[in-house]
Amino acid sequence: MNFSNFLAQLVIPLNLSIALLLLATLFxxxxxxxxxxxxxxxxxxxxLFWSLPAASIWLGxxxxxxxxxxxxxxxxxxDAIVVLGGHTANSRHNWFADYDASKTSTRISRGAELYEAKxxxxxxxxxxxxxxxxxxxxxMARYLRSQGIPEHAIVIEEKSFxxxxxxxxxxxxxxxxxxxxxxxxxxxxxxxxxxxxxTKEGLEVIxxxxxxxxxxxxxxxxxxxxxxxxxxxxxxxxxKEYVGLLVYWVRGWV
Length: 254
Known about the structure:
The protein is α/β, with parallel strands linked by helices.
């Protein structure tokens, strides 16, 4: 596990709150009641905050709306399409709606749409095998073939485990093909960190995100201010992006 993932796991609401409550218990046993109360109070507030859909809409929406979604026909033409592996919130079309396989918004289907709209002559798919089996890139390439996209229009990069590595290894392949201007495909939430990483490698990046997934569940104000487990569980993806941006900035990767 890399440092940014470790840090993200540490501050995930349930993980951090459990750790703080255990620490509060220790202080209570040591008769440090004031400090124990403060830690316990913060732990509960942290969980409550992230269990509100409003929190995800505010902080997650801030990242998602950095780059606007456009239909494939309205996306500019580029030299290549680059699709990053990953499935933010299981590719649900809306974080707060029940999972419906017929309504998923996947990165690779977005890449296929762009190719079919003649936005670029080929697609580079990027992502390693996290479990030691088939790489994400190979899985995406298989999907593209099933959609009738020819083999010569599919390029595979399967060494990258992180967004930074996606950018580094993809850029090497693209430079060999004299490609500079790319359409970058990933989730809207992941796009700010991805754009920064690929721009750092000297590429001209046109963001072509999947449609935003963090949208209001309905028109009721009560719904977005009512705590629920689905929002709490989904918050880990938002936290991961903010932590990732911070770590990448500190390390000079963006």
